[in-house]
Specification:
This protein has 276 residues and is mainly α. Among the domains are: 19-53, no CATH class; 112-228, Cytochrome p450-Terp, domain 2 (Orthogonal Bundle), CATH 1.10.230.10. The protein is 56% helix and 4% strand. It contains twelve helices and three strands, in the order αβββααααααααααα. The protein has a three-stranded antiparallel beta sheet with strand order 1-2-3. It starts with a helix and ends in a 27-residue tail after the last helix.
Length: 276
Amino acid sequence: MSDAQSLLDSAKAWWSTDIIDIHPGKIGIRGYPIQDLIGKLTFPQMIWLMVRGDVPSKQQAQLLEAALVASVDHGPHAPSIAIARMAVTCGVDLNNAMASGINVLGDIHGGPGQQCMELYEQIAAAHDGTRELADVADDVLGGFIGAHGKIVPGFGHRFHPIDPRVEPLLGLVANAASQQVVSGHYAAIGRAVEAALRRRTNKPIPMNIDGVTAVIFCELGFPPPMGRGLFILSRSVGILAHAWEEMQNQHRIKGPMPKEIPYTYTGPRDRKLSDQ
């Protein structure tokens, strides 16, 4: 083989993908011609096909869609939304504002769903059938709290005493389990964690949106890191809507508070620069 051919082969192999095959006049997604997918797959089905490689059933896609719908927005006080809106008032374009909001979806603001999935998976792995689920959840939760602190991702909410999104989503999981679309095992694990937290604290710490979407994503077989990615997809819709709304307002340089409300200065006062 010539050096030129070897170099060409190396260049062609530089990027490889199972996802898409593109040639002039041809676009194939996971082996399906794009023209066969347009108008036939829903967006949740397309998401599934892209990240999983197969087409989900209608019931699986509906459950995924419900989780995505429930997480799109939580108001302008949510940091990712507020940052996107503030970015718009600084004169940036829509894509920059969206990127600004998405970039803060880290371990605290965007990661609890993934962390909750990791907790659920630990419990599922430890529940081998020789012990009651409640006992396993209690033990694993204790280790999780010891390793990560008292705040358990997926439970409790700083704004909602009872998160209104939880019961409708759990109802959909129960219905899907009754049709054998999912096992229902992770829903039981989520409830077991909720009960274990109540026993530990002597007060209710209800499941929140991160905890219930973690149930759904685990039931559907997504790995925990994908849970964060799916949340980001969902919240991007809210970020887009708020950024666009703020663009219509045409405000300039809005900070986190109105200028009439001062921040708190905590440094030294009335210092003088001494002679050198």
